[in-house]
Amino acid sequence: MRRFSSSPLSSQFENVGFIGLGNMGSRMASNLLKAGYKLTVHDVNHNVTKMFTNVGVPSKETPFEVAEASDVVITMLPSSNHVMDVYMGPNGLLDERSPLRPHLLIDSSTIDPQTSRKLSAKVASCTLKEKKDNWENPLMLDAPVSGGVLSAEAGTLTFMVGGSEDAYLAAKSLLLSMGKNAIFCGGAGNGSAAKICNNLAMAVSMLGVSEALSLGQSLGISASTLTKIFNSSTARCWSRYQVLL
Length: 245
Description:
This protein has 245 residues and is an alpha/beta fold. It is built from 10 helices and 8 strands.
């Protein structure tokens, strides 16, 4: 199996569909637009899609219509149920009425690894409308992100990617249009698994910062003083900012 071209704006990835234009997705899609990709978008909230249609980006009524206009489709959705509905529901990406146009589907939602693996297998069983570069079947990457809204805005997200390594290498330049790091984690579902592990580590860190603040104040130290100390000592960490905001 030959690899996709990994160069930016290759013909394989020029037309990008983006589904899910919330706080994260809207900023990620905007960065793709800035990078020169041709976007087609969809969101159930039409007020959000207007942000893109007002600058000339076409919007579609269903995920299926997005797929029909795209070489690659990225989803950024709130939960596993939303992802399953967009992929498998009525007028979903994998609508069985027609072979699949996109060669690659990328899900950046934070969902459970089992759902990512189930969808990856389903995508691989689909038929391509047009085969290119000896790719016999479409592929899926689970590529959740870390960094929050500020990093989505700045284009400095970290992508944790599971799936085919060839597909990862092909998509890397696309991902780096929205982030500063794209790390291959192994097979299907491993990106989602890595995100869960990252979130667990962050949660433990946040709990530690919260407990330290509570303890310090109970011992007579003000929160502002503790903040100065944490900010200039070994307690300094990303989660500290989230607790103190």
